[in-house]
Amino acid sequence: MSKLKIAVLGCGSIAQNRHLLEYDANENVEITAVCDIVEARVKEVADEYGANAYTSYEDLLAKENIDAVSVCLPNYLHAPVSIAALKAGCHVLCEKPMATSREEAEEMIQTAEKNNKKLMIAHNQRFVPSHVKAKELIASGALGKVYSFRTTFGHGGPEGWSAEGKDSWFFKKDQAFIGAMGDLGVHKADLLRYILGQEFIDVAGFIENNAKENITVDDNAVCILRSEEGVVGTMTASWAYQPGEDNSTVIYGEKGTLRLEEDPVYSLVAQYTNGDIVNYQLGKIQSNDEGGQSNSHVVDHFVESIQNGTEPLITGEEGMKSLDVILGALRSGETRQISSLERVKK
């Protein structure tokens, strides 16, 4: 089987620390072209990976014969660039959040279907071993009826790792559209939907900018979520957790509690009402810290879905359901009322 020709659109931190490294490590692909509006940056990346360099994604799509692209651009460009790539005959792996509105997300999904191409959203938390195991335990009935949860994702903020530091597009509403909730909260919305196997129907959001100055997006947010089966819990996203990252989730059920990524040694601790405690040492969760990144499995899964003609785990529809939670939280924060979420066909 010939290698897939890949282009990476956007050469910032997420591209350099995840997408490019993981494509380079995959023997079934060839990084053919890269694109970034910063000429010096894209030339450096192109030289490192032996790829053609572009400062215009339109030029790249017009001139290169590629099979798939990763869209690693500011949030407001996710939808238009993904749509352009799909129309050009490329499969698309798009960073999260997939779009800035439900309408954009729907257009992405429709364009993928019309052109018979894969659209996958890069929600990497579904591939974390502790999360996969927790989903298995809940589905098996080991926890009994699930009652509640709390989940959080927080760190010091994008200035610590993004390519532009304090001048990052992450802090600008016209480019990011949403702050910590879009950067981190959407990951947890997707994770909870995946682990619980349920959709959320109501969300109350408390969305704030109370930690960083001179930014136009949220840096702290707390949401209360209710699922279709009555599971209620909290979801927190923050760019103000110092000095370390918190990426933990706790699930409370009839027969016990699952603690994910909370213990420094055991990535999953299952505590049961009969007194049993099971510690799972499943490997460290992916992070942007030095040495914290090896393989998120997102790229490998995307490549396999193309080669095998299978649906990726996080389709456009799945991405839109998780985006809906965040959009609902934003509406709630603005109106100070509980948001009812639109239902997406399964």
UniProtKB/TrEMBL annotation:
GO terms for molecular function: nucleotide binding. InterPro entries: Gfo/Idh/MocA-like_OxRdtase_N, Gfo/Idh/MocA_Oxidoreductases, GFO_IDH_MocA-like_dom, Glc-Fru_OxRdtase_bac, NAD(P)-bd_dom_sf. Residues 132-259 form the GFO/IDH/MocA-like oxidoreductase domain. Residues 4-123 form the Gfo/Idh/MocA-like oxidoreductase N-terminal domain. Gene3D superfamilies: Dihydrodipicolinate Reductase, domain 2, NAD(P)-binding Rossmann-like Domain. This is Predicted dehydrogenase. It comes from Halobacillus alkaliphilus. The lineage of its organism: Bacteria, Bacillati, Bacillota, Bacilli, Bacillales.
